[in-house]
Amino acid sequence: MGYHVIDPESVEPTPDRPCVQRAVGDVAGLENVALNLYEVEPGEQIPLAYHYHDDQEEVFYVESGELRVETPDGERVVPEGHLFVVEPDSPQRAFVPEDADETVRTLVLGAPSVDDVHAYDPDA
């Protein structure tokens, strides 16, 4: 059996990302699910650009602030305390607008933990 108590603040941010990303799942040794905590300042986006996954499902839980998500159907607003669910083959880009008043903190869960990401070009 394995159990972990992790203070997310103790997890070093992943280098070279457009916002603070703490790969909590990696520290916990998770193999079947990706788990990341993001702190996104106004004008920043969550690390991946506009993209989609073949098999991975994602759930964004907005702990604080208001997250925006660009989709082919238009922009979605995800308020504090709410979830945004992304099914496979569903393009999205999560970000915080430049004119936002605060940092957004969101926990993102992706399963299965696979590298099946593809860039999405809305003009293609």
TrEMBL record:
Keywords: Metal-binding. This is Cupin domain-containing protein. Pfam families: Cupin_2 (PF07883). The keyword Metal-binding applies. Residues 37-100 form the Cupin type-2 domain. It comes from Halorussus gelatinilyticus. InterPro entries: Cupin_2 (IPR013096), GPI/OXD (IPR051610), RmlC-like_jellyroll (IPR014710), RmlC_Cupin_sf (IPR011051). GO terms for molecular function: metal ion binding. Gene3D superfamilies: Jelly Rolls. It comes from the Archaea. Signal peptide: none annotated.
